[in-house]
What does this fold into?
Amino acid sequence: MNIKKFPELAHQQIADLTERYRGLSCVSSSFSLAVSGKLSFSAQYNGVSIQDEYVVEITVPEDYPEILPTAKEIGGRISKDFHTYPDNTLCLGSPIETRIKFSKQETLLGFVEDLLIPFLYAYSYKEKCGEMPYGELSHGVNGILESYKGLFQINDDLAVIGFLKILADDNYRGHISCPCGSNIKLRNCHGDIVRELQNFQSPEQFLQESIHVLYCMKQQSKTIPSALLPQTLIKRVRRHRNKRH
It folds into this structure.
């Protein structure tokens, strides 16, 4: 990776970020573009105000902003079992939720203020109050399911798979029955939400989430109607089988 390949946009946004948060500084090298240092913030939720400071490292991917930055807490304060991935990056939310939040301010400042600081505030709040301030998703695939259930305001795993099938196949048809089971046409039920979500992820990203969810449900011996399988996935499996033969 050549640091010069990063767009001027990323360099300018880093300058804006380090200007706002003086404890942070650019630590780019010939292999990566990153910001690290002390991130001081003041935030509140339900009347609980917290001022705190964490040592963080924010890495900007080469294909930013299509791919979002990642963040680590490198001061040794946050427990490894608190919403962190095996590579020690912080889980700032489900993939779709992070993209929705980032879309409100598509800058590194937005990433820090809309995603990273709320995560750090939640940890500080839990230290102080013994509970999470604004809910908590499960880890892994269960968190993805819970996220979509919240977005669609449903409580049915199969309904989530039905919506993911539409999104993965990029095949919105307003006249079909809504996957939520309401017996109402999609356009008159959850259609607006489906069409909105198409703005935040590619069909391939929805497909990958669908695969993870389907695999998890299969491991739990849950029955999945074949009609809910994304056609994109079925075609890939067929192509793979044909190549093997």
The two ends are 38 Å apart (CA to CA).
